[in-house]
Amino acid sequence: MLLKGKSILYLAAAIFLSLPVVSCRTTSNHTHTYRPYHERRNRGTAPNDEGGAPSSSTDKQKPIPQSGHGLVSDEWARLDIKLDRHDNKKLYKELKRWLGTPYVYAEHTCGEGTDCSGMVMEVYLKVYGIKVHRNSAKMLEENCRIIDLDDLREGDLVFFCTNGDERVSHVGIYLKDNKFVHASSSRGVAVDDLRQNYYATHFHAAARVTTDSSR
């Protein structure tokens, strides 16, 4: 009887080990590190808006002193974004100005109100001298080339489908360490992490603006 029990255990272990391993990462032959939103749109229950994900736990933490760089707000430091000599200080300084700007659809004024594409348009014009489309879908289609998430670098753009279909409806500016800045419809301009469930689930593409020869 004891031998029969051990045989059942061995058989169960063999079946378990033979099961395929499932990963959220695609193969190197695919464009995106995360599967596109249209392949996983039934996952998650986040609200249907442009970047209106629930605030992360970091939003409730007390601010810590500003870093010695002089360009890093309490929010950068709280999220452990450390600047070094290779970082584009002009980009960080400009984005710092936009942090906390409330979400207002079809507006693009720092400190007063903006939507996601409006902020990106204004920041790109100020920092890089480049005019990109006012619409996030057009921005991806006509101003960018798609890259892999693993190739993301400071100033690249990240796009999301947040309206329950396959249409691009949200955009943010990538910084470093998986962090990006965007105009959330529920929190205004804020810093979030691509690994958060809402953004990983609704992620569509990473892209690099192609109209700037200096990048």
Rg from Cα: 21 Å
CATH homologous superfamily placement: endopeptidase domain like (from Nostoc punctiforme)
- CATH class category: Alpha Beta
Strand order of the largest sheet: 3-8-4-5-6-7
Structural class: alpha+beta
Count of folded domains: 1
Question: Helix and strand string, N-terminal first?
Answer: HHHEEHHEEEEEHE
Shape: globular
Let me know the number of strands.
8
Integer average pLDDT = 75
Distance between the termini: 71 Å
Tally of separate helices? 6
What percent of residues are in strands?
Answer: 15-25%
Helix content: 25-40%
**Second-tier CATH architecture:** Alpha-Beta Complex
CATH domain fold name: endopeptidase fold (from Nostoc punctiforme)
Poorly predicted runs of 5 or more residues:
16-34, 40-72
Largest sheet: 6 strands, antiparallel
Report on the architecture of this protein.
There is one protein chain. With 215 residues, the chain is α+β, with helices and mostly antiparallel strands. The chain has a single domain (36-209), classed as endopeptidase domain like (from Nostoc punctiforme) (endopeptidase fold (from Nostoc punctiforme), Alpha-Beta Complex). It has six helices and eight strands, in the order αααββααβββββαβ. It has helices at 2-18, 74-78, 89-98, 116-128, 136-143, 197-202, and strands at 108-109, 113-114, 144-147, 157-160, 170-174, 179-184, 188-193, 203-209. Strands 3-8-4-5-6-7 form a six-stranded antiparallel sheet. Strands 1-2 form a two-stranded antiparallel ribbon. β1 (108-109) and β2 (113-114) form a beta hairpin. α3 packs antiparallel against α4 (116-128). It is globular, with a radius of gyration of 21 Å. It starts with a helix and ends in a 6-residue tail after the last strand. Residues 16-34 and 40-72 have low confidence and may be disordered.
